[in-house]
Design a protein that fits this description.
The protein contains eleven helices and four strands. It is an alpha/beta fold. The chain has one domain: Rossmann fold. The chain has a four-stranded parallel sheet with strand order 3-2-1-4. 25% of the residues are buried.
Length: 194
């Protein structure tokens, strides 16, 4: 079905559920190796079974010669992902999040090889010192509230008339900025999830 080995492999394993511009990605991955990433939450000191698909995606990326990035959400965990939640997540301290990340990092060694180009990066590195005014001017003007409220993570909370804090509402902007930063600094062109 696909030209690229990576997409054929993950498709045969049932890993593709939703995608955008997959034909273009297939063409590109068939011609050259790319950089892609998956974000991981740091609200706990371990990953859950649901993370296995994401870990396997990183594994298969590297297996077929691409460069995977495991993005630790050191900063975005300070905000809290509203996806799939009925209420706001417990706010963790920076120290709690750092401890969680230290315990999670060794898990990646079972799936990706850091000596062969894979990376584990913490988004706290660039988001912590982000100038909010500049961020709003650079990123905020490109994303409309109309579009943001159509996303399932926001829409479902609003439809159920459950509170959604302004803090959580900003989560997707920070996620978008993660991709922009990884693209500029690491030539990353693919975001995977699961």
């Amino acid at each position: 079905m696909f030209k690229s080995d990576f997409l054929n492999e993950i498709n045969s394993r049932g890993f593709i559920y939703q995608s955008s511009e997959i034909e273009d990605l297939d063409e590109l991955m068939n011609k050259k190796n790319i950089v892609g990433y998956i974000g991981f939450d740091s609200t706990s000191d371990s990953l859950h079974i649901g993370s296995l698909i994401q870990l396997m995606l990183l594994y298969w990326m590297q297996y077929f010669g691409h460069k995977p990035i495991a993005l630790m959400g050191g900063a975005t965990t300070l905000i809290g992902d509203p996806s799939g939640k009925d209420k706001s997540r417990k706010i963790l301290s920076k120290e709690e999040i750092e401890k969680n990340i230290l315990k999670i990092k060794p898990i990646f060694n079972n799936f990706i090889d850091l000596d062969k180009g894979a990376q584990i990066i913490n988004n706290y590195e660039w988001l912590a010192n982000l100038n909010y005014i500049n961020f709003l001017r650079e990123v905020g003007q490109k994303i409309t509230i109309n579009k943001m409220i159509t996303f399932d993570s926001i829409k479902s909370r609003l439809d159920r008339e459950q509170p959604l804090s302004f803090l959580e509402f900003n989560y997707m902007l920070l996620q978008a900025y993660d991709f922009l930063y990884l693209n500029k600094e690491f030539n990353c062109i693919l975001q995977l999830g699961g």
